[in-house]
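Renewal narrative, Specific Aim 1. Our central claim is that a sequence can be written position by position from structural information alone. The example that follows is taken directly from our test logs and has not been curated for this report. It begins with the structure tokens describing the chain, in the order in which they were read.
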């Protein structure tokens, strides 16, 4: 299969490229193909003539999105609009990655694909707008919502906490937001499995299990053998521009319904990430420096 990938330099994009390149031909783009540029997107998709387009490009800075609303909407809504339009022109399917932030977070039960989004933040609203465009333009789409990503490349919560744990005497972490941490490498392989199965629709694609950021930090420190004390705090104690869902735990009824294996528990994925993949990646990174 020939796959045109956007956002290939991002956390998920890099892992998707790694996962897909072994079995498929991948034409990878990042900011060199600005997804907000309709003409460039239409021309590139037509000239590559892929079997599918996968979009991992996004405006992912949740707090900055509150200050740069139009920029967030351009990338997260207009970007997928352009890509969906190009897929419609070429009569090919589209896989678009979305987020748990499309939910309000006032539920007490995990959100399934059949629950209604009600985003609170600019980021969540712009990502939901992207989903709506994709759904209105195409019949053959996969909208894959994921959450709390960590991976070897880029900045993420796990790396930040390991750094803080090694350099600060005590760390304070919020204990009143619950979600599903997800390893971007696991996600990449699951997205491929979904594409290869070829059943269109909305999917929730996160590692199994849920925790608060505080509990997640305890897991991280436990695996990384960091004994720095961790204190639980409330969201109100840290000032952030964007509101966060208190509870954005997702469950995939669709994966279950389609007989696709759920993703493994996040703790298992975190162990592989901290003990195997991150040191390996840092070693390689050192060599190329
Ligand atoms: N990170 C999370 O915790 C999380 C949680 C839930 C869902 N998601 C979703 O998962 C997907 C992947 O996230 P990620 O963490 O891998 O994101 P990321 O690391 O921020 O990567 C996004 C990539 O897209 C590029 N990009 C930004 N604007 C672009 C544009 N206009 N045209 C082309 N490329 C552009 C970025 O380049 P620059 O870096 O140069 O801007 C970056 O390389 C996104 O759809 C995101 O909404 C992420």
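The sequence written for that structure reads:
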């Amino acid at each position: 299969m020939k796959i045109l990938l956007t956002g290939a330099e991002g956390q998920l994009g890099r892992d998707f490229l790694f996962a897909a390149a072994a079995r498929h031909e991948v034409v990878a783009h990042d900011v060199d193909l600005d997804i907000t540029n309709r003409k460039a997107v239409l021309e590139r998709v037509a000239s590559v003539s892929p079997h599918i387009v996968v979009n991992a490009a996004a405006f992912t800075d949740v707090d900055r999105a509150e200050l740069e609303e139009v920029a967030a909407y351009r990338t997260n809504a207009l970007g997928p609009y352009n890509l969906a339009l190009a897929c419609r022109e070429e009569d090919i399917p589209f896989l678009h990655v979305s987020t748990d932030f499309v939910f309000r977070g006032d539920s007490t039960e995990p959100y399934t694909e059949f629950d209604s989004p009600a985003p609170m933040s600019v980021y969540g609203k712009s990502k939901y707008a992207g989903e709506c465009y994709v759904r209105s333009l195409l019949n053959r789409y996969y909208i894959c919502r994921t959450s709390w990503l960590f991976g070897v490349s880029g900045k993420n919560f796990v790396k930040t906490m390991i750094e803080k744990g090694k350099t600060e005497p005590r760390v304070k972490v919020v204990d009143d937001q619950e979600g599903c941490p997800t390893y971007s490498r696991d996600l990449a392989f699951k997205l491929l499995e979904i594409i290869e199965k070829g059943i269109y629709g909305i999917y929730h694609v996160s590692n199994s299990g849920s925790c608060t950021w505080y509990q997640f930090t305890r897991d991280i420190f436990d695996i990384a053998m960091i004994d720095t004390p961790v204190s639980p705090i409330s969201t109100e104690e840290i000032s952030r521009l964007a509101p966060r869902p208190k509870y954005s735990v997702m469950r995939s009824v669709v994966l279950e319904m389609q007989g696709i294996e759920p993703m493994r528990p996040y703790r298992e994925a975190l162990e592989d990430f901290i003990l195997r993949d991150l040191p390996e990646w840092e070693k390689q990174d050192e060599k190329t420096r």
